[in-house]
Design a protein that fits this description.
The protein is elongated and about 55 Å long. Helix 6 packs across helix 8. By secondary structure, the protein is α+β, with helices and mostly antiparallel strands. It contains eight helices and four strands; from the N terminus they run βααββαβααααα. The protein is about 50% helix and about 15% strand. The longest helix has 18 residues. The protein has a domain of about 90 residues: Alpha-Beta Plaits, CATH 3.30.70.120.
Length: about 150
């Protein structure tokens, strides 16, 4: 798996982050701009702090975290790839309540990219385990799509 899914939880509100960003060096701003992410969805959590889901490589994530740390921006992050593939986390359902009119299109693009990532990273054993737990009718659409395209 070259790309992974991460949840990044900032310990600041968006307005505080905007203020801190003003103090970034031009070099760090350029580094942030050049970071490569396959997809991301950012939102303001229930506590008012900024959070983000990002699909990227571990190297790119480390570069991002390093820039934030160098600029005294505190974050926690976790790799949630396995939980997503094992259907322990359903991001579409879990973050749907955070979507508003302004972020609806961005959310839909993220979910499309997320589903593409899932299809690319699923394996037949995971899907067979899900079938034994929930039956064919209980599979998510992305898992059914995987089965349609599965070749032995």
């Amino acid at each position: 798996m070259s790309l992974s899914i991460y949840k990044i939880m900032f310990k600041a509100k968006p307005s505080e982050l905007d203020d801190l960003y003003e103090y970034f060096s031009e070099v760090d701003k350029e580094k942030l701009y050049d970071l490569d992410a396959y997809a991301y969805y950012d939102y303001v959590g229930v506590n008012g702090n900024y959070s983000s889901f990002i699909i990227t490589t571990p190297k790119e994530l480390n570069n991002y975290i390093e820039i934030l740390n160098d600029n005294y921006i505190k974050v926690d992050y976790i790799d949630i790839s396995k939980q997503v593939l094992n259907n322990e986390l359903d991001l579409e359902i879990d973050i749907k309540h955070l979507v508003d009119n302004d972020s609806e299109l961005k959310f839909e693009f993220f979910i499309d990219d997320l589903n593409n990532w899932i299809i690319e990273n699923l394996d037949i054993d995971l899907v067979l385990d899900r079938i034994s737990k929930v039956g064919m009718d209980g599979l998510k659409e992305v898992e059914k799509e995987f089965l349609k395209n599965y070749k032995i």
